[in-house]
Structures are given as C-alpha cells and as structure tokens.
Design brief:
InterPro entries: Glyas_Bleomycin-R_OHBP_Dase (IPR029068), Glyas_Fos-R_dOase_dom (IPR004360), VOC_core (IPR037523). This is VOC family protein. The chain is of the alpha/beta class. The protein has a single domain, classed as 2,3-Dihydroxybiphenyl 1,2-Dioxygenase, domain 1 (Roll), CATH 3.10.180. The protein contains three helices and eight strands, in the order E-H-E-E-E-H-E-H-E-E-E. Strands 1-4-3-2 form a four-stranded mixed β-sheet. Strands 5-8-7-6 form a four-stranded mixed β-sheet. It is globular. The two termini are 25 Å apart. 23% of the residues are buried.
C-alpha cells in the first residue's frame, strides 16, 4: 500500500491552483469537472508520477471548521520537503509568499511555515 493522493482543503480552487503552480512550482496533473467543483490534482515537477495533492473544496461545514481551526491554532495543513530551505525561503519571499515562521532549526530538521492564501498554513522542511 502507498499514498497516491492527499487532500488540502482550499477556499477557492482557481486561486489555489494559481498559488500552488505559479508560486510553489507544482504541476497540474488532473482537472476533471465533478458537479460544481473539480477533481484538481497537482504533482511535484520532480516526480510526475508521484503522490498527487488534491486541491479539495472546503464546501462541507466540517471541512471549513477544521481548516479554520487548525489555521487559527497555527497548525500546518501539510508539509513539503525541500533540498535547501534557505534558498527555497528566499525564492518564495521574492515571489510574495508570506511566511509566519522563518527557517528554524529543530534538532536534525529545519522548518519554515507560510500562508498559502487559500486558508492554510504550509510547512516546508529540510532534513
């Protein structure tokens, strides 16, 4: 068994698609109409057949409440690994990404957290 798709709740699929592709560099893999929403997935450009991120609408009241609560509590919705966190941090700052935590060493890992503008905090990590 392996992880093939993981979801991130978003407030607006179009806005999320723009942020995750233009700011973060992910590549759109699937874009299929499903009622009023879409099955909209992204992959890393370094692993086109890897785990997909589903930009899932937070239309369900439970999803909205969950997303709002973890954001308010400062809990990242997910984590992405990076090779050089300081380089990634500087590059994302240059693209206008707003960080809530600068790169911070935590034992054997260094983490940073940013706002994805779609209702989530996202953590990046370098081992």
């Amino acid at each position: 068994m392996k992880i093939v798709v993981t979801s991130i709740f978003v407030q607006d699929q179009d806005k999320a698609l723009e942020f995750y592709t233009e700011k973060l560099g992910f590549v759109k893999k699937e874009d299929v109409p499903v009622g009023e929403f879409r099955w909209l997935t992204l992959v890393s450009p370094d692993d086109l057949d890897g785990t997909e991120i589903l930009l899932e609408p937070n239309d369900n009241p439970a999803a909205k409440e969950y997303q709002k609560k973890i954001f308010t509590d400062g809990i990242p919705a997910t984590m992405f690994g990076v090779e050089d966190i300081y380089k990634e941090y500087k590059g994302l700052i240059a693209k206008g990404v707003r960080f809530t935590m600068e790169p911070t060493e935590m034992g054997e890992v260094t983490i940073a957290v940013f706002d994805d503008t779609c209702g989530n905090l996202i953590q990046i990590m370098q081992k």
